[in-house]
Each structure stands twice: as structure tokens, then as C-alpha cells.
Amino acid sequence: MKSICVYCGSSPGTDPRFLEEAQRAGAEIARQGLTLVYGGGKVGLMGAVADACLAAGGRVVGVMPEDLVNQEIAHKGLSELHVVKSMHERKLKMAELSDGFLCLPGGPGTFEEIFEQWTWALLGIHAKPCGFVNVGGYYDLLRQMIQHTADNGFIGQTYVDMLVYADSTPAVLDVFRAYVAPPPKWSTNKP
To answer: Model-level pTM?
Structure first.
């Protein structure tokens, strides 16, 4: 594992623990010698995770659509910033650059990004881990909803269980290092 994509809010949220974990996440990614890949913003939790990684001597790669760069929310101090045409290109580029997907608290954009990577993983488009840092129980209800989809026959339990949940970034990264992807959803070799 060489690089970790972090999805998180472009706002800091209301709980100070969200910002604290974003800062810890950035520092931990740098400490482990990993490259941080993220959306390229200087705002909210996004900016905090990038700043902390940079301050700890880490490499940070941002990917941002040119429209958002033009709105002046791009982080100017990154190791590298890829400017792309659209959000679709952004998500694809971030996926290509990353070996795993770590989700800190965030809103609809954060959910959409991690759900896309989880979907790609269960379809076998990639075999990279997806995980949630469940700061203060932030993802408890989402986890229940995901389990509800399996309980109602919309997804196999194997694909629910492939998601990682932990209370801290180091704990998620530890599980990522040992991650083995299940067979793709439409594989004839399902467990």
C-alpha cells in the first residue's frame, strides 16, 4: 500500500472531534510513509487532513475540477494538484492514484464518493479496501442502513462485511494492510 484516498467534508462539522481526527489522519498517513490522495480543497476537513499530512512531512496529491479551482478553494501548497474537467474525471483519477479509500465524516459528496468505490469493489472493478473512521459514532446509522440492505436481500453479507469500520485512522489502516477482497458479486466462485 503506497497511497490512501481520504474522503471527508468540505466543512469542519459541528463536533470538534471531526477536525481532530482529520488532523490525526493526515499526520498518521505521513507517519506511515503513505501518499495522501484527496479532493484538493483548502476548506473544512479536507484542508485539515492535507495541512496535517504536509506538516508531518507527507506527500499530498489533490484532484479537483477546474470549476472548483476557479472558485479559489484549491489548496495552493500541495505536493501535486491534478486539475480535471469534471467530478467524474476527479473520482476516476483519485481511484487510479489510490490503494485504499478511507472515509472521515462528511456529507453527501463524501457518501457518494465512498459508495462508488465500494460498488466498484464489489463488482470487481478493483480490489481495494474501503473503510470508515467512525468518529464519535458518526457512521453508526449508515452502518445500520447498509446492514438493512443485506437483511432485505439487496446485497450479500460478504459485501457488507468487506467495509471496514474503526474509531481511528490507524485502526482502519491496520485492517487495510491485511485486506483480502471477496470475489466479485457476479463471480461464479462466491463464498
So the answer is: 0.95
